[in-house]
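Run: sequence + magnesium ion -> complex structure.
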Amino acid sequence: MITEPQVREKLATIKYPGFSRDIVSFGLVKNIRIEDGTDVVVQMSLATNDPTVPQAIKTGSEAALAQIPGVGSVTVRIDIQAPPQAPAAGTAPMATAAIEGIKHVIAVASGKGGVGKSTVAANLAVALQQTGAAVGLCDCDLYGPSIGLMFGSNERPMATEENRILPIERYDLKLMSMGFLLDDAAPAILRGPMVTKYTQQFLRQVEWGALDYLVLDLPPGTGDIQLTIVQTVALAGVVIVTTPQEVALIDARKAATMFQKVNVPVLGLIENMSYFLCPSDGQRYDIFGNGGGEREAARLKVPLLGQIPIDIPTREAGDRGQPVTAANPGNPVAQEFLKIARLLCQTLPH
Ligand SMILES: Nc1ncnc2c1ncn2[C@@H]1O[C@H](COP(=O)(O)OP(=O)(O)OP(=O)(O)O)[C@@H](O)[C@H]1O
Ligand SMILES: [Mg+2]
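>> structure
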C-alpha cells in the first residue's frame, strides 16, 4: 500500500525550476490520490507563461514517484493558470492592476546581498515622488527589514476598522515594513509557508490608496519571497541593483534571468558603489573595477539606468533615517536618482 505521506515526501524533493524552494512547501500540490493501493494520481496547479516550467516539474515528479517501492502507474496533472499580468503601457491600468489603485508595481532586486537595494529603493521612491507621482514603498525583506531605519521610523502602523493596515507616511511617501510590526530585537523567524502568507498580506492588506508607483524592496537572491511576489502580483517590472565586481554581476545575471523566465520585464540595471570621488584630491577611484554594470546590461539587453558612486553623505543620510534624495536633493547622488526616476517614468508614465 502506497500512502499519501510517502508521495508527499517524494514530491518534496522536487524544486521549482530556478528556485531553492520545493514544490510541496510552495503549495503547488493540490491533491494526491492513491487508486487500488498502488496507482498514484497527483494534481498540481501553478501560474506561469513558460511551458518549460510545468514540463520540468511534471517530468521530475513522475521520475521521483516512480522510485517509490511497489508503485503502479504514476499520473501527474498540472493545471496551468496565466500569471498575473501587468497592464500594458497606455491601457487602462486601474482595471487590470493586481493591487487595487496602484498603477505600477516596481520591484528592486539583487542577486547578492548588501549591494545597496534598500538604499536604492528608498532613494528611488523619494525621487519618483519628486517627479510629482504618488508613491509607496514596501519593505518585503521580512528577514532583514531596513526601510524603517532608512526613514527613521519605528512607528507602529494603525489598523482600520476593516482590519486594513494604514501605511506610515514620511516625505509624502507611504511606507510599510515588516520592521514596523516587529520588535527591534525579535528576529523574523518565519518558515516558508508563513513567508508566503505574510508577503501576501503585506501587499494586499495595506491601505495604500491610489498610487502611481509602489516600489518593493526585495530581499537578496531568488527565494520564497521573490517567488510569491512574481506569482501573485502584476509587476510592471524589476530593477536589478548590482555592484561592479564580477561576483556581484554573476548573481545579478541570475536574478535577472529568473525574472525574465517568469515574464517580469527587467526595466534595467543600477550599478551602485560604482566609483569613489575622493573629496581630498577630486580624483575618481574605480574601487570595484570599471564598466562591469555596462557590460552586464549589454549582455542582458537591458538599459543601464544609472551609476551611483560610493558616497559618504549617502551612507550617513541612510543611517540617520533620511534618504539623501530627500535630505539633500542637490547632492550628485540625489541627482542621479532623479535621473533614474525620470527614465523609469518614460517607460511607465504616471
Ligand atoms: N552608494 C553608496 N554609498 C555609500 N554607502 C552605501 C551606498 N549604497 C549603500 N550603502 C551602504 O551600504 C550598506 C548596505 O546597503 P543596503 O542596506 O541598502 O543594501 P541591501 O542590498 O539592501 O542589503 P541586504 O541585501 O542586506 O538587504 C548600508 O550601510 C548603506 O548605507
Ligand atoms: Mg535591504
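>> summary
The first helix runs from residue 4 to 11. DSSP finds 13 helices and twelve strands in the chain.
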